């Protein structure tokens, strides 16, 4: 999320977010006696989630995504829950070009 904040709110001023090297979380889990499993492709996700959630005990599920993948919802620095961005926008409009703020959503009536 630090990279995402730097991208969305600080004009892509990237600092200290190189995630190109990370531990093998499956091996790390196994070293501590836990169950470790990894998904590297979308078609593996269902099986990995099923295996991890059904395991009796500690399970570490390593879901590999692109380093450019963004996390939603996200709240801008100094913002509050009304400023929460819940999804990425398709069109560009200034500061909101990266997301749809929760305050912009239309409320559905039941």
Explain what this protein looks like in three dimensions.
The protein is α+β, with helices and mostly antiparallel strands and 110 residues long. It has 3 helices and 4 strands; from the N terminus they run ααβαβββ. The chain has helices at 2-9, 25-31, 45-54, and strands at 35-39, 59-63, 85-87, 100-101. The chain has a two-stranded parallel sheet with strand order 1-2. Strands 3-4 form a two-stranded antiparallel sheet. The longest helix is centred in the middle third of the chain and has 10 residues, at 45-54. The radius of gyration is 18 Å and the shape is elongated.
- Weakly predicted, low-confidence segments: 92-97
Give the averaged pLDDT, no decimals.
78
For the biggest sheet, the summary is: 2 strands, parallel
Oligomer state equals single chain
Key terms:
110 residues, two-stranded parallel ribbon, two-stranded antiparallel sheet, 4 strands
Topology, pairings included?
Elements: H1 2-9, H2 25-31, E1 35-39, H3 45-54, E2 59-63, E3 85-87, E4 100-101
Parallel strand pairs: 1-2
Antiparallel strand pairs: 3-4
Please summarize what this structure is.
This protein has helices spanning about 1-10, 25-30, 45-55; strands at about 35-40, 60-65, 85, 100.
């Amino acid at each position: 999320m630090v990279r995402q904040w730097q991208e969305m709110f600080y004009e892509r001023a990237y600092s200290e977010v190189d995630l190109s090297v990370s531990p093998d979380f499956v091996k790390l889990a196994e070293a501590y006696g836990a169950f470790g499993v990894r998904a590297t492709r979308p078609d593996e996700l269902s099986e990995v989630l099923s295996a991890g959630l059904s395991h009796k005990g500690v399970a570490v599920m390593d879901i590999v995504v692109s380093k450019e993948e963004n996390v939603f919802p996200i709240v801008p620095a100094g913002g509050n829950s009304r400023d929460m961005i819940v999804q990425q926008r398709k069109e560009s409009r200034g500061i909101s070009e990266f997301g749809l703020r929760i305050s912009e959503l239309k409320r559905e009536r039941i």
